[in-house]
Amino acid sequence: MFTGNVVYLDGSGSSDPDNGPMPLSYNWSFDVLPPESGLSDNDIIDKEQVNASFIPDADGSYVLELVVNDGEFTSEDYVIITAATPNVPPNADAGDDITVSLGETAILDGSASSDPDDGPDLYDYDNCRGYG
Description:
By secondary structure, the chain is mostly beta strands.
């Protein structure tokens, strides 16, 4: 699940074997949030419905509790949602075109390349023979 995207919660697998005394009620709540999250239970959309949703605001694990009640008894279950920022491609910049004479050393400079995700800087130069 990606941070910033809607997470849909589904409690439709809940049941009441004796069907009563009342129809099931549902209550979704956060049990654990990532330290950087600013969410609260009020950020769960339709938190008192069988299906609810929320939008993770920080990378990490969100533990949600679903409490189901039939008017007499209560049962709970938990679901763990792990949110992460999606990986995006790096920006390759091989530097300016250069011309060298046969036998001269060409100095390649990819230092203007960047990774918006601040991933590791890995460079791989292919043989450029035939270009230009």
